[in-house]
Structure formats: C-alpha cells, structure tokens
Amino acid sequence: MPITQIKSDFLTEIEKATLKTRDQEGKPIGIKVTVLDPCFNEFSLFLKKWNMKTTSIYILHQDWTPVLLENNFKENQKLDIWSFRVNEKLYLLLNSNESQEIEESKELKNSTVVSKMKKDEDVKE
C-alpha cells in the first residue's frame, strides 16, 4: 500500500512509532492486525512499513497463503483496503473489486428477471 495512495490517517501515534522501529537486524517491526477478506473471514497478519528509494509503503506480512486460497486473489489484482477499530484494535478489510462486480452483475440479472416477470404479468391482464 503506497503511503501516497492512503486517503486517511488510520494509525495511532504509538502504532506509527512502532512501525518506524527496527529490530537488531535492521528489519522493520510490525504491528499485529486482523485482516478480513471480502467474505469476512479473519486472518492474523502483521502490518509493516518499508522505506523505498523515493517513498514508503505499508505491507501486510506473514503467511498470505490462507488468504489467497480462500479468495482466489490474482497477481496484480487491485483491492480496496478499509480500516476500522473495535475496542481500539485495528482491523483491515480487503474489498475485492471483483466481488463488487459479481454483486453488481447479480443485481443486474435480478433486475432483468424482475422486469421480465412484470412484463409477463402485464400480458396476462
């Protein structure tokens, strides 16, 4: 997640300070977050901040395999990531544009079925 693409500040001051901290090997220390997939399955991952040459990015680090297997995410697929807190605990929700498109497609299909049914009723009368 490039920091330049983040639309609102979602971290506390303590979390920001933690993400700036490095371990003895110079690797960034992360904060544990609960990640929800589009079906609201929960995964425990670490949010870390990596400093690149010209910018910084946040990454979700740990074992992505369960998230990928559960959701069929594809390489280079874009996700909207929403943050919220429950009892001060940070959650991140992965919103797949594909799931949105599927829902919109279902709604369109349903509206087509409804309009056909209505026309059929009109014909009967």
From TrEMBL:
Region (Disordered) location: 103-125
Q: Which UniProt keywords apply?
A: DNA-binding, Nucleus, Transcription, Transcription regulation
Where can this protein be found?
A: Nucleus
Q: Name one GO molecular function term.
A: DNA binding
Family annotation (Pfam families): At2g31720-like (PF03754)
| Superkingdom per UniProt | Eukaryota
Naming one, the record's GO cellular component terms include: nucleus
Q: Which InterPro entries match?
A: At2g31720-like, DNA-bd_pseudobarrel_sf
Q: Does the keyword Nucleus apply?
A: yes
Name recorded for this polypeptide: B3 domain-containing protein
